Amino acid sequence: MDASALARLIAQGRGAEPADLVIKNVRLLDLVSGDLTQTDIAIGGDRIIGTYASYTGRHEIDARGLIAVPGFIDTHLHVESSLVTPAEYDRCVLRHGVTTAICDPHEIANVVGADGIRFFLESAGHTALDLRVQLSSCVPATHLETSGARLGAEDLLPFAGHDKVIGLAEFMNFPGVINADPDCLAKLIAFQDRHIDGHAPLLRGTDLNAYLTAGIRTDHETTTAEEGREKLAKGMTLLIREGSVSKDLHALAELITLKNSPYLAFCTDDRNPLDIAEEGHLDFMIRTAIGLGAEPLAAYRTATISAAMAFGLRDRGVIGPGRRADIVLLEDLELCAVRHVISAGRLVEDGLFEGRPRVQPVGLDSMKARHVTASDFEAAAPGPTGPVMGVMPGKIITQHLRLSLPYADGRRGIDLGQDVVKVAVVERHGVNGNIGRGFVKGFGLRQGAIASSVGHDSHNICVVGADDADMALAVNRLGEIGGGFVVVRDGAVLAELALPVAGLMSTLPFEAVRDRLMPLRAAAKSLGVTLAEPFLQVAFLPLPVIPHLKITDRGMVDVDRFELITA
User: From the centroid of its chain, how far is CA 434?
Assistant: First the structure.
């Protein structure tokens, strides 16, 4: 900004010149006192230049009866898990009041490496919301699985100076941190002067102390209020999560108080367009928190100013002169009923998204899994009793079970009476062709198979099934459509969604993806599946979280001991 442009904004703030846009007669929520005061809000360019005064503008919005709050900030998410590209994610969530989103392109980076980060940074230059990028710290996420890429500190540092980059993304390899793994230390040292995001499920006591000592400041994996209180006491900012699979808001709602709110923020992590359409996004989290007893002021602080401060975004999070003009106009404060959204001084309407440059997708040839047959899913074992993963609805952590299953000819089989079916991971990056096999309890699946090329974190193919031949068909079909989700029964494909961008994202508009998720969900239900989000639950089964049996492309691993249990 040059001197003449700044002088013009100052003149507008004094009322000596008309503002570019004025929101008239709105009630403004004061994030300090909680008061609602009727005022005009004047905007010049992308900046707020006046409040608590009367202004005239070249354009005016009559907001009588509405309430103005700052734009919402999603502090941790993976755009890939919305199943759409950044441009479509922008269109999808802006109308829900999200004007800043802090993403980790961890998923696409684990498939195509630095090209995935470049794709996100280029896309972020054209979104109407402010899409900020954290540099993916765990590529690969674990040595237990085969990923499509490897990124060291030297690969990340060239991106560090980009104006959309905040710092280092979630450091999920917490065993590597607390045991001073050299690769982990190299990344942590390289970003000591930047924000480093955390990922510390169930980490407590001196292990948590060690993790924080490394310079990590936030965590979105807290699942109980007791765990949250310890992390708050030790100086962490809690990113309270409510996604399509991981739903922690109810468990942590008691922490959303006026005293705690400066150290809290909201995030979605992984939320798909169908859930956004049916429930909402951060607007859903705000009204749910208030419904669970949080004071509205605490909830709105958590969604705005506290989030901004935690990530060093000092130009936003409050409606005041000199701040970025990110404003949400509400019909009802407690219900967080969004009427209008203004992002960087622009009213969010259809024309805002027209004429944007198209960023060329990457990873369109990433599905390199070998052709499989039913025999590839036979589960050889020394006896009937062995490990089974227990799904916990609404959680990405799983139970470590040991169950006796049908056993014949040296192979374990499924047991529908115990709700136990097969699960397998098929390597799909063309590296080694490995297949890991195991069993899972809690899907409710009675027949057929469902498969996904979204398989956190290395994004190999994960398939759950009650029939080996159907499992093979589902896996092979994913290769044919370039990745995505497939439902199979009795040798026929019932429903599918192609995700050709690195096997993670569709090239379709978000509305089309939303509509295609409905028959997928119905097809899964027809197999007996009882989980609300079976495809994302499948996607998270390979995730290494404690307590967890990890199904990798090498076999089943007990990550408490990092022991291979079955090959």
Answer: 28
CA distance linking residue 504 with residue 62, whole number of Å: 42
End-to-end CA distance of the chain: 61
Specify the 3-state DSSP secondary structure of 386. Answer: strand
Give one word for 548, left, alpha or beta, with left for phi > 0 and alpha for psi -120 to 50: beta
What radius of gyration, in Å, describes the C-alpha atoms of the chain?
24
What residue type is 529 in one-letter code? V
By CB neighbour count within 10 A (0-12 exposed, 13-18 middle, 19+ buried), where does 273 fall? buried
Query: Nearest to residue 298, comparing CAs of 243, 254, 236, 234?
Result: 254
The per-residue pLDDT for 561 is: 60
Q: Which of 91, 118, 134 is nearest to 356 (CA)?
A: 91
Q: Read off the pTM.
A: 0.93
Kindly report the backbone phi and psi dihedral angles of residue 563, in degrees, each rounded to the nearest multiple of 5, phi listed first.
Answer: -110, 135
> Residue 140 CB: number of other CB atoms within 10 A?
18
Are the C-beta atoms of 199 and 211 separated by less than 8 Å? no
Element (H, E) at 82: none
Burial class (CB in 10 A: 0-12, 13-18, 19+), 74: buried
Whether pLDDT at 41 is above 50? yes
Beta bridge mates, 133: 103, 165
Q: Which two tokens stand for residue 313?
A: 């975004």
The C-alpha atoms of residue 11 and residue 157 are separated, in whole angstroms, by: 41
Please write the tens of the pLDDT for every residue from 54-74: 999 999 999 999 999 999 999
Q: Which string of DSSP letters, residue by residue, matches 45-82?
A: TTEEEEEEE---EEEEEE-TT-EEEEPEEEEEE-GGGG
Q: pLDDT tens digit string along 550-561?
A: 778 888 777 666
Q: Give the C-alpha separation, 457 to 372, whole Å.
A: 22
- What are the residues whose beta carbons fall under 8 Å from the beta carbon of 206, sequence distance 6 or more? none
Query: pLDDT category, 546, cuts 50, 70, 90?
Result: very low
Helix, strand, coil shares, percent, the chain, to 5: 30, 30, 40
Tell me the residue type at 32.
Answer: V
- Which DSSP helix (H) or strand (E) runs through 116? helix 114-124
